[in-house]
Structures are given as structure tokens and as C-alpha cells.
């Protein structure tokens, strides 16, 4: 059975796919007659790794890139494979940072979120199978190669996933404009999962109830909402800032599930 193939376009996205070695590169198409230093460097990289090269008219690359901005290069690679939730929890995590996305359907937003998670050093991104964009070539291009470096898991039920994470001592922080706490007034140390809702509807009610904290980003201007990828980035980097600093008490934060079980014994 032949392996399904994906197209990857754009200089940065193609370079990251080659250098990560997470999936095989079948061949790389370059635009005929187009030469610049970045493309020449990429051609040398392909040749050093014995990756077959093809030089085609711009219209051929336009078709392969589905109208996307390919910058003169399109790679044909093995299809991206999703990580499993189980693989993210083995071995037992102690200080993991996850980004959970509840129904982000815009491919550019999903790509930007994956890129932000990668830059922030998040351990993984988790998507639902339904009502969500997947790892399409357009998402990979919008992520500018970040999908090659941060694991992306796809789960059948986000509510059950949240419950599983809680059993593994994760704090769940829901990003919601109606949240009762400012995003910079909570503690993100320890196992932490940031749950972000869809572009228009936000978090589903069931997921809101499952969160340990609902946090908001205070708005000072005339527009009260942010793009979902920008909002997630603000909270992720606040979590990263806090996690670089030791707790003033010198103790790790305790997950509420663990605290409740101890108090009942």
C-alpha cells in the first residue's frame, strides 16, 4: 500500500521539513529560472541529503501549492502523522505545558497557534477530530515549519481528554473573555494545559465547567477581543515567564484533584 503524500510549500516550511527528518521527502520542486540566495541554499541542502530535485514552470508549482505563496519551492513528503494522547503522557509528565484547541476551524489560525506553541516551548498541541481544522498542507505552511517540531495529537473527545489530563495532575486553564481571573493572576507551574475555544463561539459550556480556572485578558481599548492565536500566545508566554522563576514558597503547586484525594484519606 502506497504511503499518502502531502505538499509542503514555502522556503521556511520546506527547510524545516527537511531538517526535522520526521517524515520522508520524496522530491522537491523548484521554479524554473528563479534563483536567489535562499533558494540556492535550499537546493544545496537537498543535494547534500540526496533528495531528488525537479525544476518546473511556475504554473506547476501554483497547482501543487493550491494557490498558496510557495516562494518558488514545493516539497512532496510523506503525510504528517498525529501523535497519540498516550504518547504525551508516557513517561508520567511532571512539568508539561500543553495547548488544547476546542474547534479552531480556520487553517491560518491553527497554523499560527501551532507556531506560537512551538516558539513558546509547549510540549504538544491537542486537537479534536470533529469541528476542527487538521494538519493540512495549508496549516503546515501557515505554521512556517513549526508542525515539524511540536507534536500534534488528535482526540475523539476533548471532554474525556480533559478528564484524562486531570488524572495525570494537570491544571486546566480555560481562556475565556468572561473568565473571573486575569490571565496573569494565576499560577501556571507544574503540569498545565491551556484550553482555547473556537474563533467565534469560544469554549463549549461543558469544557468551561471542567476548567480549574477560567482566565481572561483584560481589554483596555475600544475593541474587546483578540484573534485566537494572539490571545493564546499572550497566555502561553505568561506561563513560560512564570515557569522560569521558582515559587516564592519553594514548593510546587498542588493539583486540586490530588489535594482533594489527600484530604479525604
Could you walk me through the main structural features you see in this protein, from its secondary elements to its overall organization?
- The chain is an alpha/beta fold and 265 residues long.
- It has 2 domains: 74 residues, 60s Ribosomal Protein L30, Chain: A (2-Layer Sandwich); 159 residues, SPOUT methyltransferase, trefoil knot domain (Alpha/beta knot).
- The protein is 35% helix and 20% strand.
- The strands form 2 sheets. Strands 7-6-5-10-8-11-9 form a 7-stranded parallel beta sheet, with helices on both faces.
- The longest helix is centred in the last third of the chain and has 16 residues.
- It is elongated and about 60 Å long.
Mean pLDDT: 85
At the third CATH level, what is the topology name of the largest domain? Answer: Alpha/beta knot
The CATH architecture name of the largest domain reads 3-Layer(aba) Sandwich
Largest sheet, if any?
Answer: 7 strands, parallel
**Strand order within the widest beta sheet:** 7-6-5-10-8-11-9
SSE run: EHEHEHEHEHEHEHEEEHEHH
Total number of helical segments? Answer: 10
Q: Quick one: CATH superfamily of the largest domain?
A: SPOUT methyltransferase, trefoil knot domain
Q: How does the helix and strand content classify structurally?
A: alpha/beta
Q: How many distinct domains?
A: 2
Question: Could you say which overall geometry the principal axes of the C-alpha atoms support?
Answer: elongated
List low-pLDDT spans. 249-265
State the helicity in percent bands.
25-40%
Q: What is the CA–CA distance across the termini?
A: 55 Å
- Number of E-type strands: 11
The CATH class designation of the largest domain is Alpha Beta
Q: Radius of gyration, rounded? A: 21 Å
The fraction of residues in strands falls at 15-25%
Amino acid at each position: 500500500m502506497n504511503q499518502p503524500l502531502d505538499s509542503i510549500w514555502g522556503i521556511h516550511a520546506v527547510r524545516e521539513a527537511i531538517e526535522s527528518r520526521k517524515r520522508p521527502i520524496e522530491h522537491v520542486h523548484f521554479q524554473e529560472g528563479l534563483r536567489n540566495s535562499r533558494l540556492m541554499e535550499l537546493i544545496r541542502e537537498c543535494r547534500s541529503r540526496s533528495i531528488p530535485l525537479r525544476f518546473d514552470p511556475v504554473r506547476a508549482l501554483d497547482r501543487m501549492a493550491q494557490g498558496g505563496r510557495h516562494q518558488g519551492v514545493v516539497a512532496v513528503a510523506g503525510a504528517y502523522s498525529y501523535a497519540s494522547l498516550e504518547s504525551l503522557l508516557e513517561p508520567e509528565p511532571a512539568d508539561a505545558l500543553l495547548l488544547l484547541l476546542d474547534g479552531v476551524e480556520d487553517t491560518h489560525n491553527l497554523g499560527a497557534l501551532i507556531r506560537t506553541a512551538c516558539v513558546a516551548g509547549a510540549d504538544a498541541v491537542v486537537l479534536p477530530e470533529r469541528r476542527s481544522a487538521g494538519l493540512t498542507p495549508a496549516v503546515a505552511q501557515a505554521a512556517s515549519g513549526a508542525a515539524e517540531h511540536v507534536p500534534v495529537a488528535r482526540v475523539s473527545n476533548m471532554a474525556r481528554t480533559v478528564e484524562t489530563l486531570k488524572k495525570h495532575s494537570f491544571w486546566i486553564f480555560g481562556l475565556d473573555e468572561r473568565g473571573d481571573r486575569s490571565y496573569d493572576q494565576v499560577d501556571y507551574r507544574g503540569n498545565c494545559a491551556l484550553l482555547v475555544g473556537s474563533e467565534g463561539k469560544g469554549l463549549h459550556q461543558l469544557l468551561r465547567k471542567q476548567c480549574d480556572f477560567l482566565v481572561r485578558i483584560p481589554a483596555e481599548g475600544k475593541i474587546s477581543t483578540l484573534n485566537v492565536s494572539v490571545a493564546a500566545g499572550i497566555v502561553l508566554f505568561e506561563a513560560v515567564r512564570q515557569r522560569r522563576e521558582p515559587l516564592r514558597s519553594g514548593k510546587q503547586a498542588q493539583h486540586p484533584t490530588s489535594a482533594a484525594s489527600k484530604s479525604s484519606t
